[in-house]
Amino acid sequence: MRKVPPFHLAIPVKDLKSAREFYTDILHFKEGRSSDHWVDYDFFGHQLVIHLDQNEHLASTKNPVDGKNVPVPHFGVVLPWDIFQSFADQLKQKEIEFEIEPYTRFKGRTGEQMTMFFFDPSGNALEFKAFKDPDQLFAS
After folding, report:
1. Which terminus, N or C, of the chain has the lesser number of Cβ atoms within 10 Å?
2. pTM of this prediction?
3. CATH number for 130
């Protein structure tokens, strides 16, 4: 399979200042280009753009997965196991409020993974995960 370039994701934020503080100071994502209405970030090698949008349009659905209520919609990246653990530790030190604390999902089963969920100041749900065996990302 040929290597696919980084993805681009643009998300709405209600307040650019608080969102910028969250993504820059809490998550430590490197800021790229910006304007009065948007900011580019290096999102683990992918391009995340926060766009000012004060309209209310986020859903608050939750679906059960492995005994937890997973917020929908959500976005994030799959990280290597060690990077996930250090990122989770960094977030705990910053006293991030987790929707779902970092834990091992599907322990001892196909698709075993570490996962965590939290919200940005605008209510966008983020999930970060790491697979014990990366080859099981799409295993059934």
Report:
1. N
2. 0.90
3. 3.10.180.10
